[in-house]
Design goal:
The chain is an alpha+beta fold and about 210 residues long. Helix content is about 45%, strand content about 25%. The strands form two sheets. Strands 5-4-3-8-7-6 form a six-stranded antiparallel β-sheet, with helices on both faces. Helix 3 runs antiparallel to helix 7 and helix 4 crosses helix 6.
Length: about 210
């Protein structure tokens, strides 16, 4: 497999250590996936409008193999470079988007996914106990959105809404992220949540 991937140009070998690493040709796969993904194409202008409305970073993630993977990320201001990279997988149990997706599932299915996860903390604030996570999922199911503060990145608060297909099944989430302490509960309810909900409805329709 290594030989084949190297011959195809997806691996390159260091002449000194003889170790293999991914080559920049792997980026071609990401480009073609995103370029030809109809959801990403249709969602991009919606997220651009959402970013303007909230003046904050907005992300679109896809529900994939019991996790979320970022497929589209639009920054609003200077942030650490990794918060703008697509392709990162994040757990369901501790992310706002993950909890929003879990809330869109039946409770037994959501609990089974949480129990099956490797619930290692990402920060010192990450909640890892199953019952604590399920309480947050229940709140998201009641409210129609999820909030997570400091649990994936310290000093960051994220509000997320699940994206659903025509049958109501979740296929991803929209996230709006801001610096903790800059948003009050009133900001979330009055300034962030309404445009986020509208954008999620439009993107769900696109899906």
């Amino acid at each position: 497999m290594t030989h084949t991937l190297a011959q195809l140009g997806y691996l390159e070998q260091c002449p000194t250590t003889r170790r293999y690493a991914l080559s920049d040709r792997v980026l071609d796969l990401s480009y073609h996936l995103l370029r030809n993904h109809p959801l990403i194409e249709r969602a991009t202008p919606i997220l651009m409008d959402l970013r303007r409305a909230c003046d904050a970073r907005v992300d679109l993630s896809l529900f994939s193999t019991a996790s979320l993977v970022y497929a589209l990320r639009l920054q609003a201001r200077a942030e650490p470079y990794y918060t703008n990279l697509v392709g990162r997988r994040i757990p369901l149990f501790c992310s706002a988007g993950g909890r929003a997706v879990l809330a869109a599932l039946a409770e037994p299915e959501a609990r089974a996914l949480v129990e099956a996860e490797d619930r290692r903390p990402l920060t010192r604030f990450t909640r890892t106990e199953v019952e604590a996570v399920m309480e947050a999922v229940t709140a998201a199911r009641r409210d129609g959105y999820a909030v997570a503060a400091h649990e994936v990145i310290e000093n960051e608060v994220v509000v997320a809404v699940a994206l659903r297909d025509a049958a109501g099944a979740p296929f991803g989430a929209l996230h709006v992220a801001g610096e903790a302490g800059h948003w009050s509960d009133r900001d979330v309810a009055g300034r962030i949540l309404p445009p986020l909900m509208r954008a999620a409805a439009l993107v769900s329709g696109a899906g």
